[in-house]
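Good morning C.,

I know you're traveling, so I'll keep this short. The sequence:
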Amino acid sequence: MKHFYFTITLLFVCSLAFAQKNFQSGYIIQNGDTLRGFMDYRGDVRNSQEAIFKQNESAAAQTFTPDQLQGYGFDKEQKMFESHLVPATTEGAAPQRLFLNVIAKGKASLYYYRDAFQKENYYLAKDNGELLALKQQIRFETDPATGRKRKVTDKKFLNVLTVALADCPSMSRQQLLNANLAHKSLIGIVAKYNQCVAPSEVAYAQQNKKSVITVAPAFVYALSNVSISGDSKLAARDFENSTAHYGGGISVNFTLPNLNEKLSVQTDLLYAPHKFYSYQYEENWAGRKTSSEATFDLAYLKLPAQLRYTFPKGKIRPFLNAGPVFSYLIRFKDTNIINSSFSSTSYTEETTALPEDGSKPYSFGLTSGVGLSYMLNGKILSLEARYEVTEGFSGVSDAETKLQSTYIMLSYGF
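The tokens, ready to paste straight into the viewer:
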């Protein structure tokens, strides 16, 4: 039941996270006039569809579509958006007006937006003229000699760049051939062209944000339980929840600014010990008394890899994450101590709880968590509650195990 409540809480926090607004200093351009205030800073997809603005922090928010504004921007982030009628991308579709992110501006301008399918779209325009789509096609072809499939990239955008930028004599064919359909590469080409044809004009080029990597020692407090299913006698036994155990390791987080500035990848390398115990007693019709004590004492090295969403504002920032986890068994000891007595005789036998070599060295599972981060002395202090389900340690088909763990993890990044 506690795991059910944990899941409901996670879903609730998730819904709050994606609904939260993040107002930053910015401006809108309407009818040629610039009005300063605060803009809601969202992800690439939402930024292309609407602009949410308020004149001051206490004012009501107003939502504008690309038909209502000429553009908008953010001061600190140094991002500009312009309203443009974007050509249809598929046959039979109608052009649509969107806010395009201006990533280079000058005699030649470069625009970008991410659509609802998370596809990146780039456009080139000269002297504020027609938008020219920059596209490439990726396909797989079979090599007739080897029969192997190989990836082929048809850089159709090179033809567009070659024709559009032909009036720059210093722009070599080789420079264009080396271009990729990506922010950094395209911005470099367009910036070089603008410097070539209009060296006295002030041109704009958006700076790419680099991924921020945070490494943190982590301390873990955990509670776990094991369930066993199958035809084995172990499946009929109740194992007490693992006593509270302590572990730790290293956490590494790196942001994904080119995808979404609120997203990051959270990976950890953690040491996680577990111990489970079961006591069973029975007396048969003849009076023989038998007790059995089964113990599993084990430890894993765990490597979870999660996608994290962090609330974008405030000194204390909630976050949530989820993803797969790989566990490698580094210690395993199982015992089953049987005591039997009848009348005046008794004996004790110690065996393994599972058949010999019955453990498996690795397991996979899923994990999710919610937490809070706080900037302390320039470093990130994080407290997280995490729930995890993995396959367990048994490699025996008639004694399948499942481990469920709840963690409290404290880390201090640098």
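Safe travels,
E.
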